[in-house]
Specification:
With about 300 residues, the chain is of the alpha+beta class. About 25% of the residues lie in helices and about 25% in strands. The protein has 7 helices and 15 strands. A hairpin with a 3-residue loop joins strand 13 and strand 14.
């Protein structure tokens, strides 16, 4: 695959500029209060992976925060294509697309005006280049004292622009010598990493935290659950107490840009490190390979969605 240079670009309410020149109003509620929702997808051969699922999740996030999105899906996809053309992205180049929708710009007041029109920001850049060791060996996760927001306070099922909880978690994890955090809910149940879902092999079962534990309903996670069922081994959504991590024999995280990334070390709540198979164990490797094959199939079946 050719990977060549192209211009990082942003599109703010239809105005396309180089990313570093993009501007929003200081009265935008996304800036002032984190009053926004967002999604990220990456393309493969120009096809946005899980395009419809990402728009569905954005609609759900907006519904959960009682926000009406003024722009249609068709309008947003057209704006993404305009931005990709302005960036002069080579047809064979994979790209990262992140788009925010804020409640809009208005008075400096927590209570939004009823007539606000939502604003949007599209960011287009290269796909993140993760440390190669995260795949060849695996990343390090640390259980943190910072807990995931309880569902009753701010549902993690809302993919919002307010990420302070996650930022505090990953900052603590880095101080502990890890690459990312593994956050527990207030009851001590495993939830997720800072921006990815997590799977474990515990007692020879492939398990992942349930929605009730307080996790984002990951789109890549859902795809891996379907693929695992097709491959003949089940994923069990369940409550995972932190104490059960001592019995984990494999672990991997999933997201739109990480795909299935192995975890080589887990720092437990008591400070001890649990070492896992470098590069992922047999289940992790099987899942990662199945996902790559599925991506190829998805691209073939959704060629009409191409952004480029």
């Amino acid at each position: 695959m050719h990977v060549g240079p192209f211009r990082r670009m942003a599109n703010v309410n239809g105005e396309i500029t180089p990313l570093e020149d993009a501007r929003i109003s200081v009265l935008d509620r996304g800036f002032l209060y984190g009053d926004s929702v967002y999604e990220v997808f990456r393309t493969y051969s120009g096809v946005p992976m899980f395009c419809h699922e990402h728009f569905d999740r954005m609609d759900n996030s907006a519904r959960l925060i009682h926000m009406t999105i003024s722009q249609s899906r068709e309008e947003m996809l057209d704006q993404m294509r305009r931005t990709a053309r302005a960036a002069e992205v080579p047809a064979s180049q994979d790209i990262y697309v992140r788009w925010h929708v804020t409640r809009g710009t208005g008075a400096l007041d927590l209570v939004p005006a009823r007539d606000l029109r939502s604003s949007f920001v599209i960011i287009l850049k290269e796909v993140p280049s993760w440390n190669p060791e995260f795949y060849s060996r695996g990343m390090r996760l640390a259980v943190t004292r910072v807990r995931r927001n309880p569902v009753e306070a701010l549902s993690p099922d809302i993919k919002s622009g307010n990420y302070l909880n996650n930022i505090l978690g990953v900052a603590e994890a880095i101080e502990l010598g890890a690459d990312d955090c593994l956050m527990l809910n207030p009851s001590g149940i495993v939830t997720e990493a800072s921006n990815s879902n997590v799977f474990f092999v515990i007692d020879d079962r492939l398990v992942t935290p349930s929605a009730k534990s307080g996790v984002l309903r990951g789109i890549t996670k859902a795809a891996i659950q379907r693929l695992s069922a097709e491959a003949g081994f089940s994923v069990h959504e369940t409550s995972i107490p932190a104490s059960h991590l001592e019995r984990a024999t494999e672990c991997f995280v999933t997201s739109a840009t990480r795909e299935a990334m192995p975890v080589a070390s887990l720092r437990l709540e008591n400070g001890a490190w649990r070492e896992l198979p470098p590069g992922g164990g047999p289940v992790t490797r099987r899942v990662a390979q199945a996902y790559k094959q599925y991506v190829d199939r998805y691209v073939r079946e959704n060629s009409l969605l191409r952004l480029l």
